[in-house]
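In full, the data.
>
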Amino acid sequence: MKTGDFKSWKRAGKAFPKSGQGEAQLVSRIGDASGAPYVMKTMHPAQASRPERQERFKREIEALRQFDDPHVLKIVDYGMDERGAPYLVTPYCENGSLENETKGSVIE
């Protein structure tokens, strides 16, 4: 897996609800005058020490990188954080989470 530049991101304060194996928070790119918001997902420290969990996270990154669809978030950076755990960064979507949407078919 390619190593990104973890130190080029600064945390912008907002943390999102914890997910299965990761934590997500709002970040911005250091030196970006636009201040565009992004979301960084990193692994929980307990998960990061387990090689099989790191491999699963890396597979998620590789799968997302293969999509070229306007309805799938693009990964703008990924690699290893200062703890040696994988991370990924995607654009921030202002319209909130799909979690509260009505459950429908895949097509919907």
